[in-house]
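The material for today's practical consists of a large collection of protein records. A record pairs a protein's sequence with a compact description of its fold. Instead of coordinates, the fold is spelled out as a row of discrete tokens. We will come back to this pairing of sequence and fold again and again. Here is such a record, shown just as it appears in the course material.
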Amino acid sequence: MATAARKDLPNHTAPNWGSRVTEELRVLMGRAGNGRALTASDLITAGIAKQSPGGGLAPGSTESAAEFEKDLTPPPTPTGFKANAAFSNIVVEHAAALYTQGHGHGMTVLYGVLLSEVGPLPTFDKAVELMRFGGTVASYGTNPATKWRLWIKWLTADGVLSTEPAGGINGLAVETGQDVAMLLDLLAGKVGPETLTPDVVAELGKISDLAADISGLQLQLADIQGSEEYDPHREGYPEGALVTWNGRLYRARKDVPAGVTPSNDQYWQYVGDFASLGDAVAAHSIQLQNIELEVDGLGKAASASASSVSEMSARLRDIDDDAHLADVLNQWDAHAQIKEER
């Protein structure tokens, strides 16, 4: 059988034969047109053919082709499935997918059912696909104050899903947090003293008073913990203001104009060599303790003197002559001098 003549090449006697042959060669080499000719090297690389001992091509090995066959074995059911809800999202996680079926792990598929207030708990056949993700952790966005039942399946690299989902019969239960701003808007103007019992109103009043007391204590503590250094550039100080200046504590007698230093005793009262009001309180506490000790000592001395006077009066009542009286008075003088020296 004769080989049919090629019709894609011009006759060698054609006037444009050279340019047309050049164009065909460019197409075959992939430098023009939409493709190129298939070469022996392409066939060998793809495993379709191999070099034959005679120098030509022979059918290739089936091993290379087998590498591209899909593994339709389903992956196992996911393990370590957990879900934690925030206000407007749900964080989903599971254990590492280390299976080898289907040429290994591809993605994780999340399924869910949004619960209503009524009705039985859902099962997986009612779930819809929510998202797909790689890795072991993902976040799914949702609305606040919503309840979900969730399941997951693993998807292999060859596109095969787990036969059974993780999450159990009724799915993993999660509920997002309440929208506090929305609740406050709903309650605005609807809760007042008239809707509360007298006991609750009384307790709320105590809380308000306690908050005011705490605020006052915080102001006092701020004064006790430290007084500011006098600032000559400040626009004056109000009456009662406490400042430190050259290591001493001063108190404003009245409103002090700007630039009037604590050395001016018409405007400032010297409190003492203290760095703060707290130091002044501590020093005065020690002075009061010393005064109490002195008063206690004076009280004991006065008590002893009173006892001696009572004794002297008793002895004087028993004296019946002047000589004896003079002798007793002399003894009293000597005793008083000894007490004074002590």
User: Anything to note?
Assistant: The two ends are 155 Å apart (CA to CA).
